[in-house]
Amino acid sequence: MNTLPPEAFAANRGQRAEAIGDPRLDWWRAAKFGLFIHWGLYAIPAGEWKGEAIPGIGEWIMHRARIPVAEYEPLAAQFNPVKFDAAEWVSLAKRAGQKYLVITSKHHDGFCLYKSDLTRYNMVDSTPFGRDILAELAAECARQGIRLGFYYSQTQDWHHPDGDGNDWDYDESKKDFGGYIENYVKPQVTELLTNYGPICLIWFDTPKGISEAQSRSLLDHVHQLQPDCLVCGRVGNALGDYASAGDNKIPSMAVDADWETPATINDTWGFKTDDHNWKSATDLVRKLVDIVSKGGNYLLNIGPTAEGIIPQPSVERLEAMGAWLDVNGEAIYGSKRGPIQGLPWCRTTRKPGHIYVHVFDWPADGTIRLPALDGPVTGAYLLGDPARTALPLSQQNDGLIIGGPAAAPDPVASVIVLTSE
Ligand code: H79
User: Fold this and answer.
1) What is the pLDDT of residue 45?
2) 153 C-alpha vs ligand 1 centroid, how far in Å?
3) From 18-32, 209-223, 282-296, the region with the lowest mean pLDDT
4) Which of 321, 261, 344 is nearest to 295 (CA)?
5) Taking each helix axis from N to C terminus, what angle separates 186-194 and 212-225, rounded to the nearest 10 degrees?
6) Which of 25, 318, 13, 311 is nearest to 149 (CA)?
7) CATH 2.60.40.1180 spans which residues of the chain?
8) N or C: which end of the chain has fewer CB within 10 A?
């Protein structure tokens, strides 16, 4: 049952068996769509170091260019995002139809977006801006009614002498990784789960060599502090409350587990000036539908600039997704993976008494031909039709034929509702 296809799920991105059916995940299972935010010092170089374009994802620039801590750390003195507006960021997620927001409290570079007592390398103590980004977002999320989660890089920390990943400043063989987990990571997780109200999930990442005992102690630590806080499967060692597909990986088939695909709108997570490879709004809506039809959640990322601006192409695409969801959200939120899988031109989702057929490629004659379904179908209408005009329906032994309009009602994805009661 709980099989995670290897092409989309790395071995260490698991889901603890006891989490299956766990009601703590009910809100998350219904939510389907979240906003990921990668923001930190890497937004300042934005893909360029000493006049040279650094290839790869933007938040990895310190690693990719082997920038010494002594040169990277002073970026903090330049970080002054005067255009940051928590209300606007949260409002964008709302307009996009996203139900939870996950932001980098600390990425691999080690810089903290919040006031930490464990290091001065944080937004409040080391930047001219001096404001606690997480506190402002927590207040806005509470005000606007959206759940807040934190990304936290538990294994890699290229700034901490005992964190994983930086072998250009530090001797990896001399690191006390266990001490770093106990005396730095866990107290920081305590801060995150104590100072910002209810946190819906902690999104750990790149477990790498973390031991099972260390992963488990982090998981337990989170649950002791906030029992309802979910832990992403990337805590490592097949632990966690839900499985995480690889970055931008969508499994080829439905998966009978709680799972999520984290994904980019262009190719980077952290802002890069020269990444213009934006996916189209149609592609993004169809990816959402594809993921939900297979039983998963879509955590879609934005990378704001060093000024605190969300790139306009991201804003436009998220708003277009929100517009599609305004009409078709019933077929997404609270739905389950659909009964018809594997057809290239459509996807299905379901709720009790309803099957939703999301048609990507509308047939030239307007006639929708579906394979036979398990139960009886009593009616069909377009979700985008407020009058719910009945579509002609004929059932044969080998399938179902629905008479739709000649032209696609929605060029992105037209949803036909099949009723069974
Ligand atoms: O936070 C985002 C990424 O930074 C993080 N996961 C998502 C959610 C992530 N961590 N590691 N990876 C993704 C894999 C990174 C691979 C690469 Fe590289 C980074 C390829 C190019 C830069 C490592 C460094 C491999 C080659 C150079």
Assistant:
1) 99
2) 12
3) 18-32
4) 261
5) 20
6) 25
7) 338-419
8) N
Burial tier of 3 (Cβ tally within 10 Å: 0-12, 13-18, 19+): exposed
pTM: predicted TM-score of the whole model, two decimal places:
0.97
Give the position, in ligand 1's atom list, of the atom nearest the Cα of 107: 1
Alpha-carbon distance of 19 to 31, in angstroms, equals: 17
- The 8-class DSSP code of residue 373 comes to P
- What residue ranges of the chain are covered by domains with CATH 3.20.20.80? 6-331
Match 């866990």 to its residue by tokens.
Answer: 186
Q: Please, are residues 79 and 42 in contact by the beta-carbon 8 Å criterion?
A: no
| Structure token pair of residue 126 | 């080391």
85 alpha carbon – ligand 1 mean position (Å):
28
Tokens encoding 361: 């490629």
Supply the DSSP string of 242-282, one letter for each residue: BEEPPTT---SS--SS-EEEEE-SSS-SS--TT---PPPHH
Pocket flag, ligand 1, residue 164 (CB < 6 Å) = no
Contact in structure between 105 and 151 (CB atoms under 8 Å): yes
> Binning pLDDT at 50, 70 and 90, where does residue 147 land?
very high
CATH pick for 338-419 out of 1.10.10.10, 2.60.40.1180, 3.20.20.10, 3.40.50.10800: 2.60.40.1180
Residue 15 clears pLDDT 70, i.e. is over it: no
